Amino acid sequence: MTGQEVPAFDAVLFDCDGVLVDSETITCSALRDMLAASGWSMTLAECMDYFVGKTVRSETAAIEAHTGMVLTDAWMAAFYAERDRRLVARMALVDGALALVQQAHALCQGRVAVCSGADRNKLTLMLDQLGLTSYFGDRVFSGHELPRSKPFPDVYLAGANALGVEPSRCLVIEDSPVGVAAGVAAGATVWGYVGLRPQDLRAAGAAAQWDSLATIAEVFARRQRPV
């Protein structure tokens, strides 16, 4: 297949948790512990299956039904504090994430963005501590600050608009079915990363998937610089 038949992407839109930062296990362990203390017991795997890719508040009805409590701002603040404490102590870059971001930044002339369902404080904490802020600058978008979070396309549409690129010319890299659905709904091409959580993201609409960010970088480079 020639380069003319498979045009290069103009921008790359990254999910954050589970793609750039190995943080989902940490976040869900804090959430699981707090939910258990409030009356909803589940394993870490069950918690991740249920919550990864979603905001906690989007599941208010389920949380209140399982715990019998009202999901208050105070409870959410306590969760965020415990989550952030654990993140500072344990979070790390996903293997190959820095190299992929650097490559995408170079090959797309700086047109890269983070488009996440996480809250702004969490994104700032993770990107600053792990040395990614300089690559994205103010091109960091939180689903908490938009009318709808994932699986709706709002956060990816916001990222593409800020970069001045049509969504159809964007590559989205995601690790959850909810996030894949958001990227597809935005009209972007979605590639799945399944190195941390093996699953079939193609069933959710991903055009392809790999278990290595280094492999994604190789495929991306070939697409941007076809031989």
How would you briefly describe this protein structure?
By secondary structure, the chain is of the alpha/beta class. It has 2 domains: 144 residues, Rossmann fold, CATH 3.40.50; 67 residues, DNA polymerase, domain 1, CATH 1.10.150. The chain is built from 10 helices and 8 strands.
Q: Explain this structure to me?
A:
- It is a single chain.
- The strands form two sheets. Strands 5-4-1-6-7-8 form a six-stranded parallel beta sheet, with helices on both faces. A two-stranded antiparallel ribbon has the order 2-3.
- The protein is built from ten helices and eight strands.
- The longest helix has 18 residues, at 73-90.
- The chain has helices at 24-38, 44-51, 60-67, 73-90, 97-107, 120-129, 133-136, 154-163, 177-186, 213-224, and strands at residues 11-14, 21-22, 92-93, 112-116, 140-142, 170-174, 189-193, 208-210.
- With 227 residues, it is α/β, with parallel strands linked by helices.
- The protein has two domains: 11-22 and 93-224, Rossmann fold; 24-90, DNA polymerase, domain 1, CATH 1.10.150.
